[in-house]
Design brief:
heterodimer, A: about 475 residues, alpha/beta, 4-stranded antiparallel sheet, 18 strands, about 15% strand, B: about 325 residues, about 20% strand, Malate_DH_AS (chain B), NAD (chain B), Malate_DH_type2 (chain B), oxidoreductase (chain B)
């Protein structure tokens, strides 16, 4: 699962326990008959990690396991066999007990009858990561809760932040069983409002929200964060073009890049929302060279969702029946909403291409495109405020699919660092169709691009190159 | 997605609380992750364009659970067929305003909406009044919608309940989900009584763990009572996020049931339990099962609490008189 960092230190007395440089304890088990180690969950204390090691050791090595707490062994809930069902049953028993020391136990469970079966079952497991996944889940529930994930929201006192933080706190972003710690950053003039948001988060008594860090100091805000949603920036107002706001934002993103790079957790996933999103993300990437470029993305999921919504309205079907639109390029008025590979699948029906179901290429090539491109302005016109609700929701979708994975047969749109795919110049943040698996996105390759699309894709790429030039000129 | 969609009305949907609330409803926070919903959104004509903007955003969010959106300024269209009605619409409290200041503006709103709900909502529609003065608005609604069962008309004190849990969790430095069974008695106003005498963390009484009766009987109470004003002072706006979240909690527990051993606070039509005045909407500790709430009976009420319960009961009786005088 996770790689050893050179900064890890072995615990002086507990076997199988290491401390990460940021202060968490991770437990590790050696695979049977191999030198390699299986990394399991991380824990807030060494003692919990040590107990987790014991559970794993008993599961793998049975009676011959070396235990950190041999006197507690009889109290550990153990599976009767290594079958997934038994592991889950034991997991539930572990979760049901409030304190391991006081838990009732079934001494018959601690029998070595199942030891013989373990190695056969382990050998059947194809990959070490599967074993570690099962043990990880088992041990996560054994330790009563998943480790909380730290999520940073910048500009948290603003409109999008206010819509976003309750979504995060309710598990919309990472799942209903994933505790979170919110980090909220804003500028000094918004400090009191930010405190007000923190007060409301306390007042909402969210079960998943383990803690809230509220600050105007970017170093404090970035410390240990696993996910960073960069909403902070200069908001677009009625009449403003995106380029108008660029110069104000470029220096913000240069400064924040530095703090993120130094303070965030390894493998921190970054989503830039503030416009100009693609170029802000590029600046962030350029000035945070030790953050892997694949971890820096920008939000075009809003446009993707808007495209799905427009199609569903046109066809008078539910939005969940449409999929695989693509947003190519810049989150701006040059974005290209492409339906050439999109499909409609009615309930109990056959999957059909959107183009044939809509049966109106003229609309799809003109009005549909401009509606999606200009939707942000239309919302501002109606509400007199930017689209906070839908942007926050899209940010949750973007992170969730990135972390948890996209459903089979479905892709989404993300602004990612271009590698030259589809003839797009490398070195900009360009929105592509991607699938996500195991916390990584991959561009969907091999899609046919017709001439009409080619022009649109190139036009938005050109704008991104211009924005990049403009951004750099702002920095000089 | 096999379940039939539930129609949820939000009045005042173009405002702050509505804007926080509708995405929560559309994500299944109010009724569960497997319950499709159809949103009915009502607001006044001056807010029609903004309301349409909210509808546009709901379409733009591509929510899997959201099966339809009705955005209207017509109260009849808004109420037609609704199973759950969250009445947020009203005159919002601003910095410096007392709740009584807004009452007269709201009473006539609730009289006319009562009529529309009674005639057009689905049978057994569950009503939650949020707009302040919440208890008295709910009472007016009940009085002018006589065919809606009184037990179906409630007001929101879950926000105060959650605020009380939050204050205890901060004081004890424990997770808020470990604190339970506070009670908010009475009016959703500065006379509410946040009572911890039966509250626990794990199996230990809160009073024993806090070990500071002076704080629990003093500052804790006033902090919870005045929290709304504190939020307005910090944000310069009313507490939309936490109010919307509490509204979801209120409906969810009502519809899906409270967890075993746990009660919540709801403003409900008083039957005189605990010697509260009958015939007002009074916040009690309740458990919920099979879509019905039941007042938790038999809790010991000490002298200190008795006075507080009476005080807030007296205020509700006054508000009722004031409301009726506004209508004459």
């Amino acid at each position: 699962m996770q790689k050893t960092s050179e900064d890890d230190t072995k615990h002086p007395t507990f076997r199988g326990v290491r401390m990460r440089s940021w202060g968490k304890w991770v437990s590790e088990i050696r695979e049977p008959r191999k030198k390699s180690r299986i990394w399991l969950e991380t824990y807030p204390t060494a003692e919990m990690a040590a107990r987790a090691h014991d559970v794993g050791a008993l599961a793998i090595k049975g009676c011959s396991a070396y235990l950190n707490f041999p006197e507690l062994a009889k109290e550990l809930p153990l599976p009767a066999s290594m079958s997934p069902k038994e592991i889950q049953a034991a997991t539930s028993r572990a979760a049901a007990s409030t304190r391991i020391i006081n838990s009732s136990f079934n001494t018959e469970m601690l029998s070595c009858q199942w030891t013989g079966g373990i190695e056969a079952i382990v050998a059947r497991l194809e990959l070490p990561s599967r074993l570690s996944w099962f043990l990880g889940r088992f041990l996560a529930l054994y330790s009563m809760a998943k480790d909380p994930v730290r999520v940073l929201v910048t500009g948290a006192a603003g409109q999008i932040g206010y819509a976003l933080v309750p979504m995060i706190a309710r598990g919309v972003m990472l799942g209903p069983d994933q505790p979170v710690i919110l980090h909220m950053l804003d500028i000094e003039p918004a400090a009191e409002a930010l405190t007000g948001v923190r007060m409301e988060l306390v007042d909402a008594a969210f079960p998943l929200l383990r803690d809230v860090v509220v600050t105007t100091d970017v170093t404090v805000a970035c410390k240990g964060v696993n996910i960073a949603v960069m909403v902070g920036g200069f908001p677009r107002k009625e009449g403003m073009e995106r380029k108008d706001v660029m110069s104000k934002n470029v220096s913000i993103y240069k400064a924040q890049a530095s703090a993120l790079e130094k303070q965030a957790a390894p493998d921190c996933k970054v989503l830039v929302v503030a416009n100009p999103a693609n170029t802000n993300a590029l600046i962030l990437k350029e000035f945070a060279p030790s953050i892997p470029e694949k971890n820096i993305t920008c939000l075009t999921r809003l446009d993707h969702n808007r495209a799905l919504g427009q199609l569903s309205e046109r066809l008078k079907i539910h939005v969940s029946e449409v999929k695989n639109v693509i947003i190519w390029g810049n989150h701006s008025s040059t974005q290209y909403p492409d339906v050439n590979h999109a499909t409609v699948t009615p309930a109990n029906g056959e999957e059909k291409p959107v183009r044939s179901v809509v049966a109106d290429d003229n609309w799809l090539n003109t009005e549909f495109i401009t509606m999606v491109q200009q939707r942000g302005a239309a919302i501002i016109k109606a509400r007199k405020l930017s689209s906070a609700l839908s942007a926050a929701s899209a940010a949750c979708d973007h992170i969730r699919d990135w972390v948890v994975g996209t459903p089979k047969g479905t892709w989404v749109s993300m602004g990612v660092y271009s590698d030259g795919s589809y003839g797009i110049q490398p070195g900009v943040i360009y929105s592509y169709p991607v699938t996500c698996d195991k916390g990584q996105w991959s561009i969907v390759q091999g899609l046919k691009i017709d001439d009409f699309s080619r022009q649109k894709m190139d036009a938005t790429a050109k704008e991104l190159v211009e924005e990049k030039t403009l951004a750099y000129s702002c920095l000089n | 997605m096999a379940k039939e969609p539930v129609r949820v009305l939000v009045t005042g949907a173009a405002g702050q609380i509505g804007y926080a609330l509708v995405p929560m409803i559309a994500r299944g926070i109010m009724l569960g992750a497997d319950q499709p919903v159809i949103l009915h959104m009502l607001d006044i004509p001056p807010a029609a364009e903004a309301l349409n903007g909210v509808k546009m955003e709901l379409v733009d969010a591509a929510f899997p659970l959201l099966k339809g959106v009705v955005a209207t300024t017509d109260v009849v269209e808004a109420c037609t067929g609704v199973n759950v009605a969250v009445m947020v619409g009203g005159f919002p409290r601003k910095e410096g305003m007392e709740r009584k200041d807004v009452m007269s503006k709201n009473v006539s709103i609730y009289k006319s909406q009562a009529s529309a709900l009674e005639q057009h909502a689905a049978p057994n529609c569950k009503v939650l009044v949020v707009a302040n003065p919440a208890n008295t608005n709910a009472l007016i609604l009940k009085e002018f919608a006589p065919s809606i069962p009184a037990k179906n008309i409630t007001c929101l004190t879950r926000l105060d309940h959650n605020r009380a849990l939050g204050q205890i969790s901060e004081r004890l430095n424990v997770q808020v989900s470990d604190v339970k069974n506070v009670i908010i008695w009475g009016n959703h106003s500065s006379t509410q009584y946040p009572d911890v005498n039966h509250a626990t963390v794990g199996d230990k009484p809160v009073r024993e763990l806090v070990k500071d009766d002076e704080w629990l009987n003093g500052e804790f109470i006033t902090t919870v009572q005045q929290r709304g004003a504190a939020i307005i002072k910090a944000r310069k706006l009313s507490s939309a996020l936490s109010a919307a979240s509490a509204a979801c909690d209120h409906i969810r527990d009502w519809v899906l049931g409270t967890p075993e051993g746990t009660w919540v606070s709801m403003g409900v039509y008083s039957d005189g339990s605990y010697d509260a005045p009958a015939g007002v909407i009074y916040s009690f500790p309740v458990t919920c099962k099979n879509g019905e709430w039941t007042i938790v009976q038999g809790l010991a009420i000490d002298e200190f609490s008795r006075k507080k319960l009476e005080l807030t009961g007296a205020e509700l009786t006054e508000e009722k008189e004031l409301a009726y005088s506004c209508l004459s």
